[in-house]
Amino acid sequence: MNRTWRDELLPASFRGISFLIDQAAVPMGLKGQLHEFPQRDDPFFEQLGKQSQVHALTVWIIGDDCFERRDKFLEAIQTPGPGELVHPWLGRLQVKAGACEMNHSRRDGGMVAFDVTFYPDKPRQFPVARVNTRQQVVKSSESLLDSALARYKAAMAKVDQARLGVIGLRNSLSNVYAVIQRQFAPLVGLFNGISGFVQSLMNSPGALGALFSSYFSDFKGLDFSSSGSSYRSFIGTATQHSEAVSGINSVAQAGGADNMSAAQATADLVQDALLVQVGLIISEMPVASQPTSADATPSVDQQAVQPVVRPEVPVADDVLELRDSLSEAIYEASLKAEYFHYQALNTFRQDLVKHLTAVAQSGVRLVDITPAETLPALVLAYRRFGDATRVGEVVQRNRIRHPGFVPPVPLKIARE
């Protein structure tokens, strides 16, 4: 037997106290102000938002126990705070009780009538403090730079310049100078090759610290909002820095004790400068806003004319991999640091991990899928995402040789 609309009605109640409702009306639509102007026949209606759904109800409590239920109902509507109103036609609503008028009649024995008004209630939105993880990374990067410069100055003050040898320093610092060439290109022009770099250390040991201080005072990093910048490019740059940090954690044994001390102090300074630079770069990576799903997927022909516009979001797996590699590199560097510098490195590591974790949480995860047959990458991207323009993402992620022929092998694809 088919259910009718009467079967769909809910038994009315407020805070569990049942009653009867014969009819109910509630304001709907938009409230607004009608503007009428002199000498003009066309008025203008200014819409001012939705009407407040105020429920003015006449409810009845009927039965031999009407007085007992009346008292319970009065207690329910006179209790401060929100309560649940079960509306026969509108379902369960969170409301607050307002003014009420109670009516008794000898003629209507065994019944109590209430004219009561219920107002819609929503939880208050209180301000919520959010940690600015990007700014924390910037602050800890600046503190790390100050600590690194002080550490380098203290270490070089103990070195006897007269005992430094060109050949020993060249052999020890070849990898360090290669890192400067790749990651600090503006500084390379100040030296005449590695020999000039070594001569500068021997003649003026404090000059390198001054160069890095000047370098970071003008450092602008990468602009995430600029054309061509993306999470992928930021992650790629940061990954190169992480590998370079691990590559110069120690220097080759060459020359005497003073040579070794000078070489290690220089390597430590360059290593710290790499960390400061990667920190400033990563601080430009924003926490992505959650994308909204489209109502309908446009056809491939429509996308050819008007490509789908989607916000840039990171791949969580890539961000987490970068986070773990950087955390490990910083931890290894901190094992050979003095107490005061260890604190700066540890604070920097914690802030970096915190920010990258927040970035990863705003991204998408990768899943493994295996196509049932060989098909073009464009078709795979359209079937998976409803967006044919993401074909490049599928091809690059899985290093597909020919985008027209994707083999039926396990592939790494974004979940959404």
Over all CA atoms, what is the radius of gyration? 35 Å
Order of helices and strands: HEEEEEEHEEEHHHHHHHHHHEHHE
The average pLDDT is: 83
Please give the order of strands in the largest beta sheet: 2-1-7-8-9-6-3
* Low-pLDDT stretches: none
Q: How many helices does DSSP assign?
A: 14
Major sheet attributes: 7 strands, antiparallel
The portion of residues assigned to helices is 40-55%
Q: What proportion strand? A: 15-25%
N-end to C-end Cα span: 43 Å
Number of DSSP-assigned strands: 11
Domain tally? 3
The gross shape turns out to be elongated
Helix- and strand-based class? alpha+beta
Please tell me about this protein's structure.
It is a single chain. This protein has 416 residues and is of the alpha+beta class. It folds into three domains: 9-29 and 49-120, Elongation Factor Tu (Ef-tu), domain 3 (Beta Barrel); 133-292 and 312-364, no CATH class; 365-416, Roll (Membrane-bound Lytic Murein Transglycosylase D, Chain A), CATH 3.10.350. Helices cover 46% and strands 15% of the residues. The chain is built from 14 helices and eleven strands. It has helices spanning 5-8, 66-77, 133-157, 166-183, 185-188, 193-203, 207-217, 231-247, 257-282, 300-305, 316-334, 339-361, 377-385, 391-398, and strands at residues 13-14, 17-18, 20-21, 30-35, 44-50, 55-62, 83-87, 91-103, 111-120, 366-369, 411-414. Strands 2-1-7-8-9-6-3 form a seven-stranded antiparallel β-sheet, with helices on one face. Strands 4-5 form a two-stranded antiparallel ribbon. The mean pLDDT is 83.
